[in-house]
Each structure stands twice: as C-alpha cells, then as structure tokens.
Batch of 3 targets.
Target 1
Amino acid sequence: MILYINHRDIYSGAEKVLLDTVCSKEFKYTHLVLVPKSSKLKDECAKRKVPHIECKYLKGRSEFSNIFSYFINLLRLNILLASLVKQYKISTIHSNSYFSSVIIFPLAIIFRRKIKFVWTLHDINGTVFDYALRYLITIVYHHTIVVSKATRRSLWTMLVPKSKISTIYNGISVENREPSRSKNVQLLSIGMIAPWKGQEELIKSVKRDAVRYPLHLIGDNLDDQAYVFHVKSLCVGMNVKFHGFIDSPWKHVAEQISPDSLAILIHTSIMPDPLPTVILESIANAIVPFVSCHGGGCEMIPEHLQSLLVYDPCDKLQIRDVLECRIKYIMDNQSEIIDDLKSHLRNNFSLDSKIKALANIYVS
C-alpha cells in the first residue's frame, strides 16, 4: 500500500493533481491519503471516495505559539505514522510537498531500510536553508520527483545519483471543448493572490493603458488577507471584477464570465512558478494563456509559440504589448494556437504518462 501525505488544508494545484492521479482508472495501487483535520482536501477526498485518514497533527509551524509545542506535535505525528506503517502494511510513503517531507524526516531515517520514501518537490524559490534541507531530503529519501525542469535546476544535486531524481510533469486530461470564435474578449487571472503572482502589476497596467477588455480576478489568499484587500481596492472604479475564491473556476468561467466571449488567461507571475497548474487547465479548456518566461510555465508552451511568453512581467511596454497587440494575434489565429497547445499537452502532460512514470518509481 502507498501512503500519501499532504499537510496543506487547501484544495489547490498540488492537491488536485494528487487526487486526479489516484482516482484515475490507470492507477492500480492500493492507497491511503493522510490529510489535515477539517480541511478542504478532506472534503474533496470524501466527495471523490478516496481512502483517507484525518490527522490533527498535520499542521504548519505558524499554527503553534512556541517552538516547543511545534516539536511535540512533530513527535506525535511521527509516532502516529509509525503505527500506520504497521497497521496498513505500508510499502511506500509518498510525501506530496517539501514541508510534508521535512516533518516526516525522522521517520524516513528510522524506516528507510523497510519501506520506500518518495517525495515531490513543487517549489523553486527559498532561502539557503531551504535549499540545504531539500538537498538533505534528496539524499535520505529513496526517490525525488520534481514537477518541472526549472524545479530540477533549483535543486542541489551534488553527489546525488541521477537515477534518484525524476522530472514528472503534472498530468491533466484534455477537454473536448471548442475555442470560442467570439471577438468579445474577457481577460482572466486565476490563482492565489500574492505579491509575487503579479496581479497588482496587471491591474495597474489595465488602468494605466485604459485597456478596453474586462479583467476578471479569481483567487484568494487566506494567509495574507491584507494584501487581498489591497488588490481588491485597486479594482474599484475600473474595468476589473474581483470574484474571490471559487471552487470550480473553469466552470464559472464557462457559465458566468465567457459563455459567448473569447477568454484569455494572463499568468504573468513576477517570481518563477514551479509548474502553474492553472496554465495546463487553461489549455485543456481551450483558453489561450500568456505566461511569464521563467519557471515551469514556459515549459508548457511549444517553441514556435514564443509570442505567448512575457519575458519581463514588470516591464510596462511588454504588458501593454500583450494587452493590445498580441490579443489581436490570438483572435486571428485562435484555432491553430489551441490545436498546437493541446497537442503539446497530450504529448508531455498527460495523466497516463504521469501514472506510468510513478509506477516505474514505486516498483523499482
């Protein structure tokens, strides 16, 4: 049996990819997901009938008043995991994030001769301490999965055998949806609201250049509500609508925002994004994305479609070029662009390919 550990109490990109994987008909392994108590991930596991266990010890450092209580919680968590290993005869523990891998690190040291430890790295940015800790995890764990080539380049790999690290893209199923042929354009920005995500710069560009296309912001950030309020305040009196968090954003886009319009995603994050799932979902839903030319996002764009890349999201002239000139190019060539993007998606980001790659790791 494979035990998946996910410490985040949200249901976002990494969590959605995890459940899509284990719910696929191609996934043949018995599995169990350890989730935080009273979390959105737990609710989604129940909805999709994924075997799971609630764990009150899966918490972040910020939830504790002092370092002593934090380490006591870690001790309890590792004791619980040790009991689960015996009770369910766990053969592989797969940690779905960097933080989850840190908190079960003691268990990996104790049980690494008996069971296999695998972890997935979804992060690029961090401090020197983070890079050093990731390097230590890579050495101790049996296998490291990185979600993009950009993520792999950020990982310290000195003296680590290449066979211990695999680049496995998040897989996604492509919708059989035809692109809109409307000339009525709606701009989308979907994802976590954060300074490094670039929403503030995008809103200011729309305001400064008096862009005629409406911009829709979908997302939230429970850890930084002050910044969310700041971004929301920028939208007042403009051609921008703030929708907040929506459980099914693409259904909302299709039914409420652009049922008869041409939707275009603007994902111009300022700092590198390891592999923004929203771009994959955009292409799968026949919506053309504009992507920052760093991190894993640019790996989703074929080489002959470089016009969809924004090399400097902070450059006013580049953003103006995207919002004025390049949108016209998409309107004139949308069908061909979508066909090429979907073909690239099927060849490199299919769910079946991911499951086959995981199978090779689990049985090796």
Target 2
Amino acid sequence: MVSLADTAPPYHGWTHDPTARDEIPIPLLEGPALCVGTLFAVITGGASTGYQTLIDEGPAWAQRDGNRPANSHTLRYYGNGLMFHVTRVGLRKSTDYGVTWTTSNKPTGFPAATLTHFDRDILTGRIWAVWRRRARDEAVYSSDDSGETWTYRNLQTGEGDVLRSIAVNPVNSQQIAVAGDDFARYGAYITTNGGGLWGFRSTGFLATASVSAYNAIVFADTERIILMAVDSLPKLVGFITNASGGGWTQVLAGQNSQSHPIEMVRVNETTFFLGVMGGTRTSNIFRSTDSGQTWVNLTSYAGFQDVVSMDYGPECDVLYFSQFEPTVGTRIWRLEEALTVAPGSEVLKDLADTSPVHRGLRVLFDL
C-alpha cells in the first residue's frame, strides 16, 4: 500500500484537503486498467441521494442515503470520510463516506431560508455559504461548526442581489469571491480580509453577461480568479481578474451555451476542466493548462445537452462527468488521459445510463 503523498498526484480539487493525503491509503496502481475507485453521486429527479458504485462495474448503484432532499447538488469530499453536499433545506454532512448524513441549521431569523451554494476553507474548515432568505434576497454567511450556527457576512452593496456561486482561495483563507446573476450588477464580490470588507469588481465584465451556475467561479492561484458566465445570445464568456485589484479580462467567448449549468474542476493552479451546454442536445468539455487564460475544446457530445457534474481522478488521469438530456436521462462518462488527450481523440467509457440527474460526482480511491 502507498499513500497519496507517496504517489504525489496533482492537487485535483480546490475544495479538497491536501493535508489528508498521508492518511488515505490506496493500492499501488500500475496502469489505467487497474485504476478503479468508488464513484459517489448526488442524484435528483425522483431518486434518492447518496448512491455509490464501483467505477468499473457499470451502472449498478448501491444506495447510501434514503432521504430525497430537494435541489441537491455540489457534492464535495475532504478526506477521511468527510463529505458535504447542498440541498434546498440546508447543507448535508457525512463523516462516514455517505452512510449517514446530518443537515445543518438555517441562519437565525430565517426559518424559510434555502441554501444556494457553499465552499469550505480547506485551511481552517470554515464553511462559506450563500443563503436565499427570501425572493431576490441572497446573503453570505460563514460557519465554523459545519452549519450548527451561522455568522452573517455583510456584502454592504450586495444585499438583495441574486447570488449563485461562492469560492474560497485554497491557499489564502482571506480571499473569498461571490458571483450571481442580478442583471443590474455585473461581476463579482471579492474580499481579501476574510469577509470583513467586500468590494464589487465589474470593470471589464460584460454588461450583458450573467452568472447563474453554481460552480462557475474558482481561484486559480494566490491571486487569479476565473469566472464563467453567459451573455444574452446566449454564448459562453470567461473572465479572469486579480484578487487584489484590477478589472476583468475576457478569456473565452463565442461558444454556444446556456445559462445553466456550468461546471469547473480545478486540477492544480494551472490546469482546469470546464463543462458546458453547447446548444440543443450538445455539450462541450474544455481544458486549460495556463490558469484559465486559454481554453481548448476537447470535444462536443451530441445527444446530451447539460454537463451537470464533473470530477477529476489524479491517480489515473481520468475525468468523470455526467450529462443530462430531459428526453433521454443521464449518462456518466470517463475520459482517459484527460490532461494530455488531443481534441477529437478522446477515449470514453460509458459508466451508467439512468433516468435521474447526477448533480454532483466525487471519485474516491481510498475505500
């Protein structure tokens, strides 16, 4: 047995805990054929939440949680069995690889609040979340006890905006960014002092662009922020800005898309994957190897229009993504040699064909 620290894979999730590497043993992997793990998915559309399956055993899912909370998405894994995912009623947490789950409390004074999105500071364990307190009133809160209690984080100028996506810098707990789709404001709220003071960054951001996807903003490194949006055509547009100041620079444009969903996966500070709807019954997978400055369209997939969840497995250099088409259902795919595969030469493995929607994927090699 070797540990993740011994194999030194790339840091593949800005929400994952790199300190957990020494504590997670995995078998010695000698080739792609031996690269198997456990694939977790949050499933909506009438099915239960918390299914799991062995990746190379096809579509035979084993139930992990019999509850069916509404609007489940954004499944995250942080090592040693710790998992979180978003539901409308609150943030759900498991400490035993999804066998049992608990649901967080809601912000004091807002019993009808619904959870929109979250991120976890991997350095401190603090949870940052966007709560919708009432119609067109979404606010930022933080929690140091996994959602038992919440602290209100005043955006000053951002109260009442429609917020959608929140991200914490994985190497700097003081930097948090929040984006949304209020058409009266264009850009993102950014703090560089841990939420004490927020500034709204809009210079260079298209006045016709909006952010309505949950996982559309991410920190590339200690400074750079990547944000994906769509304009009114609708076309996909991407932007980069510096966390400490400056305007937005457009880095991706002209791709067919819709407002939702958009999925980004951070492999390390230079490499990212992006999944978007490419048009009617079409979806696209992009890759960037220069911190989001340029993107390569690896391929377009006909028949399924939404890329609803993604995860990267560094042990075997594979990208997992699920697609949804209302008239067909959901497919989960495995893309081999994801970091180096040339556009149009991808090798895909079809893992499952089901009717529910897989709103979050995590692939684990430590079970």
Target 3
Amino acid sequence: MESPSLIHRIFLSLWVLLLPFWDLGAGVALVLAFFAAVLPNLSAARRRWSQSAPMWPLWGVVLMVVLGSLWHPTSLDGYLRHLPLILVFWAYDRESIARSLPVGAIAIMAFLLGAGMLRVLEGAEWDTLVYRGLLKGLHQHVYIGTYLLLAALAVQNGPWSGRIKGFFWALTLLFLGLLGAKMLLISALLAAGWVAFRDRSFPRWALPAVAILTLGFGLAQGLAQGRAMGHVLKPVDPHWATGSVDTRIVQVQAAWELIQEKPWLGWGPESTQPALNARYTQMDYRFGVKRALNVHNQWVEWALTYGLVGLGIWLVTAAAGFRVARPNPLTLGVFVLYFGSLWLTESFMERSLGVSLVAMAWMWGVVPKKEN
C-alpha cells in the first residue's frame, strides 16, 4: 500500500498509546486507522489481500471463533475482541508503531510509579509499588510487561544513541522486576536465549540486564506481602490453593475434566466460565469461585472453549499460511518461544489488550518488512 497519510498515522499512534489505558478508545482508534488506510485507495487494499498469507496463522484464530459460533452462541464482545487480528494487517505502519510505543511505555511507567508514590504519601504500605499493587487501575502485569518489552525493542531498533537505548532498557528491566511477573520473565529469557543461540554469541549486555532484573525482582520480593517466592510453590490442594503455581494446576485440572465431557466442539465462549465456576465449586476451590478465574492457560482455554474441531481449524489455517509464506526463523522463534510459553500460564488472548499485543508483535516481527 502507499505511504500512510497523516490522519492514518495519528489514529494508529492513538491506538498504541491508548492500548494500556482504555480498551474502547484504542479499539475505535484502530478502526479509524483501518478506514484511513483503506478508503483512499481501495485497489491497493485489494492487492494487499493477495499478500495476506503471513497473517493466516492469526486469522486462523478468527476463523476458529467465527466458525465456532455456528454451534455455540458468541457475544458481540467476543467478535470485537478478535477484530485487531484482521484490521492490523491493513492499518499497520511500522514507523508509526515504533515511534509511539516508547512514548506509551514512558507514560505507563510514569503513571504507575507516580500513582504508587501518591498512595505511599497518603499512608499506603510500600508494597503498593510492586506486583499488583503497582498496577492498580490498569491491566495485569503480563500485558503491561509485554507492552514495555515491545517498546524497548522499538527503541533498540530506532535511531537513538547507545546511551539512550541502554538507559531505556535498564528502566524497562527494573520495572519488569518490580512487576514480579515470573512467567513473563522466563518467557523473555527464553526468547533472548533463542537470539543468542542463533547469533552464536553471548551479548555483553546480558550480565548487566540480569543484574538489573535481579535488583527489581529483589525489591519486589522484599516489599511483597504474601507474594514472595515461598508463597508460590505450595502443595496442590483446591481448598487452600492461592499461589501462582497451585492455582494454575487446579484450574487446568478442572478444565481437563470439562474437556473430556465435550472434547470435539467444546463448551463455547458463553458457557466456558460458568462451567468452570461450577466445577470449582465441586472441587471446593474457593479462590477460583471467588475470583471467577479462567484457566490461565491459553492452549487449554481454546481446547475447552472450541474443542478439537476448533483447534484443528486454527492449526490447518496456520499450516497453510506457513506453507505459502515462510517467516524468518529468528523472529518466528522469538515470537513462538515468548508467547507460546507465556500462554502456558496465562489465557492471554481472553483480553482485547492481549489480542492487540499479539497482532502488533506478529506484524512487527514475523510478517516481512516489505509487506508492512
């Protein structure tokens, strides 16, 4: 498609900036960016359709949702949540995203730390500056952390000096440590390890990065109340489960029992959570009933919701896309290792921010640059 217009870049930048703060506003901005990209040149938009094979792995998720609605009722919210997977292909502009992400990341960190310090000055405990206390009013740490990592990558690939890049990375890593998202950190290390393996080298920034992460994570552990490492690994007992690991094991157990009841077509997006809540009650899983927790595993969540047929639709579509357009092994590996491992402990795509982050990362890292 042609170079983006000013109005297109403005709406796309608004989408990026609003994502962590306002789901509805971000969604509207992306729709407007899509129309600003498509309407001025419909013939170019149609030509772009012929280049869409790299997007098929993501569009397979949309197809799974749409076809799944033939045998399960799906709310309007369920459709709208997955809309970025389609719109971003036409609305995406690499330069606009790369410029907006760092601004959004700085806004997030300033807002969260500023709001946290105000709470401390008003008498709150210092643990309001770590873990979920730091995120009051915003999304969970895995979403915010992923946004910050994408912003740091944008800075790394931008025109800034080495000092600015190093400072931005240091600030991001310190903030990720304070967030204390253990699986996000593991997923990021897996992705970084893949890059190091492909490059056959150990980057000089690795030790400083680990030191900064350790500092932030150590502060989080020191200030946390009930979230320290000793409270994570607990014996698995549904009645008492409240930790990071035991709760997820119980939730997957509940989901697996439900999957066996409806293995082919699943329970559907409108019935999955009520079925989980009922199973939690049977298991005496008090924490899950109180919080109405989802599975916290995207793979199992999809199997529970859409069954083997739904997963098959997605896998066939993804395989067809990879057969037509082979992505760069380095960037594909980073994407798969990061999100694939993160999805083992988070139902990441059950929120609109998660869907948008996946779409953005796929377009940026996996789809060839010449096509976006």
